[in-house]
Amino acid sequence: MGKDQISLDREWIALMKEAKGLGISPQEVKGFLKSERVNQKNSKSALRSYC
């Protein structure tokens, strides 16, 4: 496991702990991240179409 992977794992653990403290399930976090990824792709496509 590389340094980047360890850092990412630590960030993910911290995110999940914070979400748990707020009553947010892991599935909700994953769903949100997936939806944001789709939104970013759509934004990039819209920007390309505009330019």
TrEMBL record:
Known Pfam families for this protein? SinI
Sin domain location, by residue?
Answer: 1-37
Q: Keywords of this protein's UniProt record, alphabetized?
A: DNA-binding
- Domain of life from the UniProt record: Bacteria
The Swiss-Prot or TrEMBL record annotates one GO molecular function as:
protein dimerization activity
One of this protein's GO BP terms? regulation of DNA-templated transcription
Spans through the membrane: none
Name of the protein described by the UniProt record: DNA-binding anti-repressor SinI
In its UniProt entry, the species of origin is given as Bacillus aerolatus
